[in-house]
Amino acid sequence: MCPSPFPCLPWQHWDCRTNHAEVRRSRRLVVSMVSTFMNYEYALYWYFYQDGSIHFELKLTGILSTSVAPQGEDDPPFGVRVAPGVNATVHQHFFCMRLDPAVDDMEGGRNLVVSEVESVPLAPGGRSNPHCNGFKMVETELLSTSGAQRTHNFFTARFWSIKNPYSINPISKRPVSYRLLPAASPAMMSHPSSLVARRALFATKQLWVTPHSDSQRFPAGEHVVQSNRCMGLAEWTRKDLSLRGTDPVLWYSFGVTHAPRVEDFPVMPVEVCGFSLKPDGFFAGNPAVDLPPCRDQASTEQLPQQHNHQQQQAVQAGAGGSCCLLLSKL
Hints:
nine-stranded antiparallel sheet, primary methylamine oxidase activity, 4 helices, three-stranded antiparallel sheet, metal-binding, 17 strands, globular, mainly beta, Cu_amine_oxidase_C_sf
């Protein structure tokens, strides 16, 4: 755990009318750990930012699982030749994160509501969409454990909202909430009848929601290796329980499909996957707006002052002193 001085850009703006720029640098709190599982290292990083957002990254590194690829034979059908006589098999990694939010709820999250939000185009024409470019956000509450088994849809910018109906934002007059924002993640390639898919049923959906239970910790069950089916989420969602007033727990599944490269041998550069949590009406404004200005003492101007002055005069002369005219010419 450490505060990171990583030069993140929380916000920036340049006003073309006044030629005035404001920019801020932020810090982040990093909570991390690294686990080794046979040939792979999984590095888990939680990033907490000053704008209230939380990002999770899982970095995969280590060494490839390889087999012999005899010289002179055709390329391996299920892998890539990464070195002379060495084949690395294509494969997938899937993870599932248990999220037990509170979101300003004094009862630890009991009153929270989980919903799905998507952008939907309006019907073309008419008074509501005369230029045929209108769309709106549609929100659907997830009421039960079966209805809350959801997948990605990047075509509609789908995300999930975790809101507290008993805490209202003074500006928007809407419940305070956090958004669960998915990142790119593959579908499982194994057939549903395969042993892999039966054990890792959690990876067949990207989101599951269940009522809170302290005993439910492992989405694939407690004894995965010797099992022939999923003993976790498959069992917990079998009865299709209601999620209202149950302190809902979110299970978010994500992963990567690893098609090995020659550059992954002998030690792999990191592959990254993860997700983000961002406040939505949780604050009364941008919580990072009052970050103090920070001048970068390490940066120095490389062009002579005279050259910069002449360049600025040339731009102003060519634009007639108008930034709008300059943009129109560009």
